[in-house]
Task: structure prediction
Amino acid sequence: FCPGGKLAVRDGDRVVGPLNRLAAQAQQAGARVVASRDWHPPDHVSFAERGGSWPLHCVRETDGAEFHQKLELPEQTLVVSKATSADTDAYSAFDGTGLADKLRSWGIKRVFVGGLALDYCVKATVLDALAEGFDVHLVQAATRPVDVRDGDGRRAVQEMLRAGAVVEEG
Result:
């Protein structure tokens, strides 16, 4: 989703610094860090050649599915792979991953969310986290929208606020 990728988000690489700071702060506080990723099979339903909305992207076991090379995740980061089945799409890190149960097993009640893209995967993750009963903070500096339609990112933030998320600038 970063510049140079098949489904690049404008200024998508600018989320790396804020995400690195957030992960470092979490680690220093003894909190858990979770990183989600699209991990699509090559014939995923979301791809245009299968009738989906998106170009080929984030195909598992390829460079295009890797995290940004400058993203600094702590060694014990839990990596959650989503949209791993060819016939099922998943935007949220909670969709079919068991993440909510894992977080609860760790005693986690509050989550901070950033990443790409604000108006799709981030929004879906925030809304699902709220539905699962977590206190959710969207870290706006750590995300960017696709903005397929002008203003999609702004509308996504408003939807998350209405659903109960807290929006933080930093």
Remarks:
- Residues 118-131 form the longest helix (14 residues).
- Strands lie at 34-38, 78-82, 110-116, 135-144, 166-168.
- The longest strand covers residues 135-144.
